[in-house]
# Entry
Amino acid sequence: MTVSGRVILLVAVSDGDVAVNDGGPTWHTPTGGTNALSSSINVVRSAVNIMKLWFADGTNWKYYDPGDDTVHTWAATSGTLPVDSSGNKPRLICTWHGRTVLSGLIKDPQDWFMSYRGDPTNFNYAPVSPTVDQSVAGNLAFQGLIPDMVTALMPFNDDVLVFGGDHTLWMMRGDPMAGGEIDLISDAIGAAWGIPWCKDPYGSLYFVSNRMGIYSLVPGQSPIRISQQLENLLANIDTGATLFRMIWDDRFQGLHVFCTPYAAAARAMHLFWDQRSGAWYTDVFDNNNHNPLCCLTYDGDHPNDRVALIGSWDGYVRQLEPAATDDDGTAIQSAVVIGPFVTPQMDEVLLNSLQALLVQYSGDVDFAVYVGTTAEIALSRPSVASGTWSAGRNLNTYVRRSGHAVWVKIMSSNQWAMEHIRAYLRTTGKVRQRGY
Amino acid sequence: MPQKPIPGPDKPVDMAFPVRGIDLSSAYDLQRPGTTPIAQNVRGYEPATDRLRGGSRAGLVKHVPAQVSGTHVIQDLNMIVGTSFASPFSAPASGLGYILIQGPTTGKVKVVDGDGNIIVTSSTLGTAAPAVGFDPDGFAYAAAGTNASPSAINIVKFSTGGTTVWSTSIPMPNGQTTVHSLVATSSTVTFLYTDSSSRTRLGIIDSSSGTLRTTNGFGLDQLDLTPSAGHIPTLTLGDNGVITLAPAGSGPAGTPSLIQLGPGYGSRRDVDIPGVNGPAISAYRVAAGENGSVYASVIDTTNTGTTYPSGVAKIDVNGLVEWTNGFLHDGNNALNWYNVSGTTAYPLELAFQDDGDIPYAAGRYQAGPSISYNVIALDNDDGSITQQVSIPPSAEVSIAPDPDSQGIFMAFGTTVDFLNEFLAVTDTFATASAATPIAVSPP
# Structure
């Protein structure tokens, strides 16, 4: 028991089964948890309200109550749970202003449905005695439908719920039963399907757009594209075949953008944005099973439990662990290029030697030197020198190679870190400068 | 780095990690300072120490060692926080977990469950008692060195069901090789050994495959340690992968009492623990605590007379002594810890239970003229004793956290390294006094 009496349960869905973990080494299947949800889809969504977990898988009405450790059928106590004309159930869910918000009906894609505040089983839109807390739906409310297919529900705070559309963004400002309005944020930017968003602790919302831009958004302002440096990498992603998830990682003070092929475990390139330095990095898991379709910022009591979790294709829940030297047994193939070394006078540069200072715990790294008449050509050519550096202060490595541009690449399958590298350079004179 | 003038021949230029990350939006020749076209699986703030100097990214480990539902994809993750859930996770009535019992002379090890059932007995691994440990997934490891030509370190991994997952043999220089201690994670097994040239080193192997990664762990090619009988250097694994090592034997006045190693610290760190009788304090056992802290059992070797007072110190992640107990704050009064047999001092054993943040210690306890053998639970904030139970008289006690987070296990015997009985103590100490020790013959 913690000082506050706080109990944290991690809930996972796999093969349609609901399972619970309390920090121990095993999963527990609650009563009714087996085959509770659809096993024919790869993603299920859920939202916590009144200390219960409410699921939306497009097929079933279920919720998990940890009070009696049971997965119950989600039935309406008043009104009717929302379905479309073919009986399809919602696939999008969130909790906003005490309401459980549903959307994503296949044959009613512009509609949205909000439960009674604090009662996700009450979907009575026309009670005998109307109140500001009562249930409300887009097709019946004066705010109307979202003028676009709803692709994401992004609760920002109690006053603002952002609706991601296929090619637009909308904002419910204020509770709809208390005069709230739906305002257009952008008619040029939409949101990818599902939960392609996250929030940082400082009041910004981040999302993947319908056209593969990554944006930050503070309600009341226009979205700001923060992926400009990467557009070339993002442009080739098939948004119809890829599921996007974002997660704020407080340990590393940045956000992960997971871009995982939806159909099966396959190679993927993910992104990490370091908020402190504004830097983007690409992440690749060499084991395709590690590419996640779901993730969670887990907020446990123990320092080791305040981590970013990912759900894997092989049925395990994994965490990003600063001390882990590999990806659960699979080596991490890391690489970074430093440079180019060029001069304002476009001199030819002679790289005489390199000396590396790696940190004491570092594993070995390989390095390679690339030279060329331009930086672009240098990077496309085979390396002209290479070697290995180890932890601590390394001996001088003589390179003695020249070019108008010089790059140094560091590669490793070990855990490593560097202090810095010292290069000894000189220019080779005006004759070389004029040549090519 | 681009556009940096290089006036004159052979000028040194610092190449820093491109901490501003990937930028594919500029000309190659005009790559903006601090950016790069390629940065895969790396970070500017390297994860182990959070310094802005560049390194590989953090890796993945299993958060829960078991699969949710076989090999099916995880479809959703969420969490619920509350205070009054009906717990489906009540403590099991029996079978609290498993314990490893080392053969003192046979070089074998037994895996025993909480009811005393022997799961498996290993083959002969070496010529001394193997070093043993569990990883967070519940797999057991044992390692021992041989005295042969050629010499070797033999390591085996068992499942708790008794299946041998893998075994490996690492060649060593001819002569006696001794493995002193072992800690395991989901990804690596780190072991401390002394080879035939009396060099003490850290070896690291891959825990999933048994493949040797290095016999030069953390870049240390030789540790200044002198193992001696009864004083075995100890490794322990803490938060963030911190490996802590307590040296063997007692040093002269002013000798550092604790050495901490590992990715969480990045380098060796020495800690002095002040004692009332002078600075000649020797750390004997260590246990990892929360937030990178460690607990050390220490003995004041400068004390005169027939006893060597000892106590427990808590050291925080910055290497600062947070609290001490026993003689360390009370002097030689009624709350002293003693752990003495004749002129030979034996260590206080330590363990830390994550669930509840409880440090435990075991050993001989003296309150005035009364001597008893006890296991105690300490207050994590100040080191005071919160609970205490008696155990049968013993020259040697070994304790370890129960893998199921229900308390601790302990094993004890009548001679050093002859641990032939054990019992489980729950975290409430409810069963300890009434429990009958389970006798298990050593392997």
About this structure: The radius of gyration of chain B is 24 Å.
